[in-house]
Amino acid sequence: SSGINAEYGDTRLWNYDCTSLSLHKTHLLLTSHSHTLMCVALNQPAHVARTTEGVVDTGIRSLERGSRLVVSDPASSRVVLQMPRGNLELIHPRPLLLTYLAQLIDTFQYRKVFEAVRKHRVNMNFILDYHPEQFLAKLPEILSQLTSQHMELFVAELSSEDTTLTMYSFMGTQSTAPTDKVNMVCRAVLDSVAENVIPWLNTLISCYVKIEDVSTGLMKLKSLYSSYPGETEAAIKYMLILTDDDTLFNHALGTHDLDLVLLVAQHTQKDPKEYMLFLNELQSYDDKYRKFKIDGHLNREKSALQHLMCCEGRFEEVCDYVTKHSLHSTALQHYPFGTDQYKTVGRMFAVMLKEKGQMEEAGVLFGQCAELKECLECLRLTKQSHLALSVGAQLNLPPDQMSGLAEQLADNLRRDGGHREAARLYDRYCDNADEAVEVLCEGGLYSDALEVSQSRKRVDLISNIMSSLKLESDQTYSLLVEKRELAEKLAARIVVVREKRAQVGTGFEDMDHSDLYSDTTSLTATSHTSSSSRRSAKSAKGRKKAEMKKYSLKEGSRYEYFAIQEAFKGIMTFVNHRATMIKDMVNILLLQGLLEPAQKVVTAHQEIVEVVNKSVSVIWPPPTSDVVDGEGEGEVEPVSYPPEKVKLDAVQLRQFSGC
User: Fold this and answer.
1) DSSP 8-state secondary structure symbol assigned to residue 50
2) What angle (nearest 5°) sits at the alpha carbon of residue 446, between those of residues 445 and 452?
3) Residue 173, Cα to own-chain centre: how many angstroms?
């Protein structure tokens, strides 16, 4: 029903400024005082059409002021409008047109579909996207209704976009286009026209260009040239419309067929003086070397090297080409292991790696090439002690040189934190138990140090170990106390900061804080990234400086709240990592009868664990339902409460259970 300037459906107001309406077979058409034509699908709920925003997906188009609906053709998409001057105009509203096209596709009238799509400038992907299964399954029958020109336009506009999900989503189709749509459709078209190529030659070329397989398309034209020279040359000219002269010339050159290159070049705008000299030069080479020259010209270095390595008597040129383009790995894969060519290329590769400081890889390559001295020279600068000592044994190094080699390797490991392996080398190969014990004590490996002293029957070393251990226990105790006091201070301070932030917003939304709690909780709130901070920190030095400012514990700083969380997370990590070492330390102290330092360390560790576990809920309070977003209005906490798994375990010893 309708009233004056109002339309009703199901007793509900659809639109309050209607000026005219027309009922189509599939849509309700109406014009409004805002000078628009609205097309509402009849299967759409009535209340959706109430406002302009509600029908945006169904299609709205502007009209000339005062336009009125006269009639709509139920058998097509034609709609007649009367203009204010009295003249009639015929239009095809997009929703009606697409519905009409869908009906034609359902009834398999693809010729009419293609002509209508071309006439009304509808995206041609819709022809496939509306019913992809039918299109691909019955492609030969569809082609029988069309001409090559239809398919050329279709292939040219083909894209990976599914138009039924984007620009024409209001159609509401359930079919989904294939993921690799462009390649799948082009391959299907090529298969369908394979038995009758000539009428579809331009379509074939369009498909090969679309899937970026121009070389295969050129080879197909070359095979047809002897039987259909006129059609082939016309197809080459058409291909030049789709690509430029240089690109097509290079693709032809990449086929290594000089006759095809000349055929293509003759139809380009290139000057014969530019390419004939080059082609004549290529013609003078043998087949394999010609392919090398062509691939090198096209910057296909790996392929060029493969052809060059197949040429007789050109190994020196191979070496030069490998060095120039750093293709050592490709060359090594070609030559059999152990051959002179393999050793030569391998040594070149090893020298290059050595110059870059990649000593381990260089040493292995020198070893493959039976260059053991160079291999050892590289490996002795690495942490690969087993490999280096093995090579030293193969070279039959005298004992003093083996000892020196082991000492150098141990020094390398010691600098990089490999204390246990370094001590093994000092003890076994250098016969230096003192240095081995010292290294183990440096790494906190007191049990291993005691084992070395006992195996060497060096009672004097035990006193050194215990002195180092007592010093380490004192330092550990001081550090635990310091961390506990810091944890208490942070827990107290964050309460004050949170209260101030609840009163006045501190701009925490300007900072990306997602990494502050990734190790302490499995749930995170939405992170906010500051675009202004990214713009200001353009250099690596600037970014580092900006990052340090974020985590400053200075009272009153902008990011103090998050700096406290970051610092507390560091304390938790420290306590977790030290737990095993503390337990080993305490066991050895007890074994030697040093009860007092052992008790101090255990008590300090238990105290800090207790403080940390109690403070977790203060640092990361559980979210409350009454917290709302908004600056200065009790913002949502950026870190949700950590799960139980983050709670720390203190070192427990029965001997101190009463402490």
Assistant:
1) G
2) 95
3) 32
